[in-house]
Design brief:
Elements lengths: L1 H60 L4 H11 L7 H18 L1 H13 L2 E3 L7 E3 L2 H22 L1 H7 L3 H17 L15 H13 L7 H11 L4 H26 L4 H4 L1 H28 L4 H19 L1
Antiparallel strand pairs: 1-2
Helix pairs in contact: 1-2, 1-3, 1-12, 2-7, 3-10, 3-12, 4-5, 5-8, 5-10, 7-13, 8-9, 9-10, 10-12
């Protein structure tokens, strides 16, 4: 009797093990099928994120308008906007690219904020003297940021509506090309090498505020304005790129405040790929602009803007 009980117990145990193995096998098969589908979806989203990251990085710093290219890319390729999370990641990546290229200058500016001195004269004519040139540059960058901050915050809803009109971005590219072309004609002698005044800072800041519109290049407008004001090419480019730090940082902060709930929907891997491509292409684009300003005419980018603007207008009208 005892032997029969052991046989029955072993038989029941064998049946349970067989049942569990079948369940595990089916679960594993389902998970494999799911992983294949999920892997396919990830590959598609990764490619999309990489393309948008490349476009964002290259066009953010080349004077050809990143916002205009993203609007036109999404329209012509029928790509839906990737959402706030993706924009936050790629903008932060381009911000890191600027800091990486100008890391020595950024380090000096940060150091001057804590170590620099400001002197106030107590005479009849009250003046403020900033002894450290890097601290002065910090205040000029803050001053130049104000116009874009005011326009972006007060006219945000209207600007967002304009972003939904791709034809506006195409026409704005033609305007950007016109501004870039004008840099070939010196408006005044370059007598303020490595010296940015308060008026220069305000005018460059206004130019940056205009560049909030899609199709108008931020770097193109700010560098061109510096050249029109008589600044040398190196100073104009350096001021323009450093000015992008508070602008991109502020825009990223506002996007984070709006929420980043679609991270799970997009996937962390596509976000990381898009960010890496945006950083690499942004770093390369900054180097290209600096090299072009040293050895070639800045107006060369005007022809590209005109070609893309006219071509996209034709495609949008025919579409």
């Amino acid at each position: 009797m005892h032997g029969l009980t052991q046989i029955l117990t072993r038989s029941c145990l064998s049946i349970r093990i067989l049942r569990y193995s079948l369940v595990v096998r089916e679960t594993f098969r389902f998970s494999l099928d799911f992983e294949r589908v999920h892997c396919y979806i990830d590959v598609v989203s990764i490619v999309k994120a990489a393309i948008l990251g490349l476009v964002q990085g290259f066009t953010e710093f080349l004077p050809i308008s990143s916002s205009g290219h993203l609007v036109l890319t999404e329209t012509l390729l029928n790509v839906e906007p990737s959402g706030i999370s993706f924009e936050v990641f790629v903008h932060f990546a381009t911000l890191l690219a600027i800091i990486c290229v100008f890391r020595k200058k950024v380090r000096k500016i940060v150091k001057s904020i804590f170590c620099g001195r400001i002197r106030f004269s107590s005479g009849k004519k009250k003046t403020v003297t900033v002894s450290d040139p890097n601290l002065k540059l910090f205040f000029l960058l803050c001053l130049a940021t104000i116009p874009a901050a005011v326009v972006g915050y007060s006219m945000r809803e209207g600007i967002e509506k304009i972003f939904k009109v791709p034809l506006f971005a195409s026409c704005a590219l033609l305007f950007t090309g016109f501004i870039l072309y004008l840099t070939r004609f010196p408006f005044r002698h370059s007598n303020k090498i490595n010296k940015v005044s308060v008026l220069d800072s305000v005018l460059i800041g206004i130019a940056q505020a205009v560049a909030i519109l899609p199709g108008v290049s931020r770097s193109g407008m700010t560098i061109s304005t510096g050249l029109f004001r008589g600044l040398d090419r190196k100073t104009s480019a350096e001021f323009s790129f450093l000015l992008a730090v508070p602008v991109i940082g502020g825009a990223t902060f506002l996007q984070i405040k709006e929420g980043m709930g679609n991270i799970v929907q997009i996937g962390i891997v596509p976000l990381l790929f898009g960010s890496v491509f945006a950083f690499c292409s942004g770093y390369f684009a900054i180097k290209v602009v600096l090299k072009v300003l040293q050895k070639a005419n800045f107006c060369l980018f005007a022809y590209y803007c005109w070609i893309v603007g006219i071509a996209t207008i034709i495609l949008i009208v025919l579409k």
